[in-house]
Design a protein that fits this description.
alpha+beta, two-stranded antiparallel sheet, nine-stranded mixed beta sheet, about 240 residues, about 25% helix, 5 helices
Length: about 240
Amino acid sequence: MKNLLFIICLLASIHAFAQTENFTGIGIFKIGSDTSVVYKYASENKLKVEIISSSDQLRSYKLATNPYANKYMKKTKDWGKDIIGKVDKNTSDYSLNVNFCPEVTQYVLTSYEVSGVKTTEIKLLFYKNRLNKFECKYDQNVLDALDQKYGKAELVVTKDTIKCLYNITGITRNLISTTYSKNRQMGDIKVVALMWTAYDDNCKEMYLSSFYYEQVNRELAQCSLEARKNKLTPKSTKKDLKDF
């Protein structure tokens, strides 16, 4: 009887530990939290939530959507300052990766630090006012913290042959693209870390990377697809083109 009680208590403690260690997000940015966390963070850090309608605005704060853009940017008086921005859905700058689903709201942050681990170039996507996706710049410290708290994820290496077209000569070459990935599936939350090789217009090798976690949501995926299709489909009619 004592052994049975011991086993029951042990199983209960293991179950409780597993529950507390379930991944829901980094710091205050938990999957399912509402947009108030953004404004609370802004208030606590004396930051203004600005409307972002151009990638140039992000670059002026050293938060470029293109990882190589900062290298060529003229430094402004705001260079290096922390900002929080709300992405303007009406922007024509598609480099901001705007999600046109009417129930999606997107924010960007220059940085966020918790437990001594700093994340940068953060993008937040809320669906129906709930956080659905957190994306930031790839950082080994973030991966090490996840490994320490939730166990090590398996490193998967894949190689693909891609065709690279030299912009000047027009010659096409077959080159190898290597992808390094560490993926975790924690309930309905997917955690993904990627590094991969790509090639520029001169077929020069460069390294790109990404880290994100998101809640898989088919409804959101369908809304995003339909909204983007509607946004990018020309609405010309015969009447519009009568003087063409």
